[in-house]
Amino acid sequence: MSAAPGGAVTIGAALLTCLALTWVNPHTYLDTVLMLGSVDNHYGNPGRWWFGAGAIAASAVWFVALGYGARYLRNWFAEPGSWRILDGGVAVLMLGLGAGLVVSS
Fold first, then answer.
1. Rg for the chain (alpha carbons), in Å?
2. pTM > 0.70
3. Do both 66 and 86 map to the same domain?
């Protein structure tokens, strides 16, 4: 990203980065088109529209919560121990999900 005089990031560079992360990111297409598209087809004609509306609402709530959560947790995550706690929680969650998949297969 290019920086303006004084080290600040320009609005144009920030917008260009945002657009690139949105439109060049393959997960955008994999998650929305393939995954949600194949899941919502199971609900039939009226149900798929409700599923799509719910997915849009959940996405909006998730990203707003993520933005505000990052703002409020900024000071807490300044400590290295906080990152160890978060990483440990993610590890436990992933191990639990993996164990659940192994048991259910």
1. 19
2. no
3. no
CA gap 1, 11 in Å, rounded: 10
Average pLDDT over residues 12-20: 90
Does 30 lie in the same domain as 6? yes
Residue type, 71: R
Q: How far apart are CA 78 and CA 43, in angstroms?
A: 44
| Alpha carbon 13 to chain centroid, angstroms | 22
Residues in the chain: 105
Burial label for 53, CB within 10 Å (0-12, 13-18, 19+), is exposed
Tens-place pLDDT, residues 35-86: 887 888 788 888 888 888 888 899 899 989 998 998 899 999 899 999 999 9
More confident residue, 65 or 1: 65
Q: Classify the C-alpha dihedral 35-41-42-45 as positive or negative.
A: positive
User: Residue 103's domain spans which residues?
Assistant: 76-105
* Total domains in the fold of the chain: 2
